[in-house]
Amino acid sequence: MRDDYVHGYGEREGRRLQDQAQTLADLLHGGLAFPPGARIVEPGCGVGAQTLELARRHPRAHFVSVDVSAASLAEAERAARRAGLTNVEFRQADVFALPFPLASFDAAFVCFLLEHLADPLRALRAVARVVKPGGALVVVEGDHGSTLLHPESAFARRAIQAQVDLQAAAGGDADIGRRLYPLLVEAGLSDVRVEPRQVYVDGSKPAWADGFTLKTYTAMIAGVRERALAAGLIDAETFDRGVADLARSAKPDGVFAYTFFRGAARVRRQGGGVDKDAGARYM
């Protein structure tokens, strides 16, 4: 098991990922339409939080979901069995050494993986190698620099920054959403398009306040407490006040906003040709 995933691999993190996937399902997956019979690879599937949503929404497509963590894959398989899903299989592998022939998939779905990698560009190229020419890569990432909250809190900003710094120390980038377009272009992909998908939560959206502000975002920051303190990035009093202020923004008079970015691109055909219409299904 790798130790560079700053959120850890415990039960609490698995529960947070499931809460996140359920809350963001329409925001992240809305408009995607993988066709019947398509084979899609999902690198970095973790505990299968996004896998379940993919498989449910595209019951006639087949998904091969991959992760480096055997423990996460075991949890993902259990979740898929509980959900009665038969159109997904799981493989243990590193994204940089995918055990598949060249051009063996019709598309790829990559979600919340690049932010944890020291070389996201190499990862994109590795994934593109196993997708057929003309096939689509769909990539979803967040950007912690987009976080907005009311009431504003310097303590919350310090706690968020501690998580950003931890991720950077592990080789990742919590602000990678803003880099998605240039990364896809530099990876040699074509027909690149990126769009922001913003979460906005106020007192009129109590379900989002609970599912995202509290159970997804605040829980994510709270989950790095021990690592942040051990690294000397922040003191306990400041961190705890920051987490409390994040939770405060979920109150009826609070506001919270965060932006995800979803990109879609195509693996180049020989000769550089692009199927200009095919990409419309993925954005």
List keywords for this structure.
283 residues, alpha/beta, Rossmann fold, 8-stranded mixed β-sheet, 9 helices
Number of domains: 1
The count of strands amounts to 8
How far apart are the termini? 34 Å
| CA-based shape | globular
How big is the Rg? 19 Å
Nearest-integer average pLDDT:
91
Instruction: Quickly give the CATH architecture.
Output: 3-Layer(aba) Sandwich
- List the secondary-structure elements in sequence, H or E: HEHEHEEHEEHHEHHHE
CATH level-1 class: Alpha Beta
State the secondary-structure class: alpha/beta
SSE layout and pairings?
Blueprint: H1 11-29, E1 39-43, H2 49-57, E2 62-67, H3 70-82, E3 88-92, E4 105-111, H4 120-129, E5 131-142, E6 148-150, H5 154-169, H6 180-186, E7 190-201, H7 206-222, H8 225-230, H9 236-248, E8 255-266
Would you give an account of this structure?
With 283 residues, the protein is of the alpha/beta class. It has one domain (11-272): Vaccinia Virus protein VP39 (Rossmann fold), CATH 3.40.50.150. The chain has 9 helices and 8 strands. The protein has helices at 11-29, 49-57, 70-82, 120-129, 154-169, 180-186, 206-222, 225-230, 236-248; strands spanning 39-43, 62-67, 88-92, 105-111, 131-142, 148-150, 190-201, 255-266. Strands 1, 2, 3, 4, 5, 6, 7 and 8 form an 8-stranded mixed β-sheet that branches.
